[in-house]
Amino acid sequence: MTVAVYLPLLLPVLVALAARLTADRARPRAAVPGLVAAAIFSAAATIWSLLLLFLTLFDDLPAMIDLDSRTGMHLPEPVPDWVAVSALVLLVVALIRLERDVHLRRTTAHRLRNAGPAAGGVVVADWSEPLAVAVPGRPGEILLTTGMLRVLDANERRAVLAHERAHLAHGHHRAVLLAGAAAAVNPLLRPARDAIAYLVERWADEEAATGVGDRDLVARAVARAALATAGHPAPAPALGMHGGVIVRRVRALHSPPPASARWQLALLAGVTAVCLLLEATATADFVDVLRAWLAG
Amino acid sequence: MADDEAGRRRARGELESEVMAALWAAGEPLTPAGVQTALGDGLAYNTVQTILTRLLEKDLVRRGPADSGRGHAYWPAQDAASLAATRMRAALDERPDRRAVLQQFAAGLGEDDAETLRALLAEREP
Question: Which of B60, B77, B94 corresponds to the end of one domain?
Answer without folding.
Answer: B77
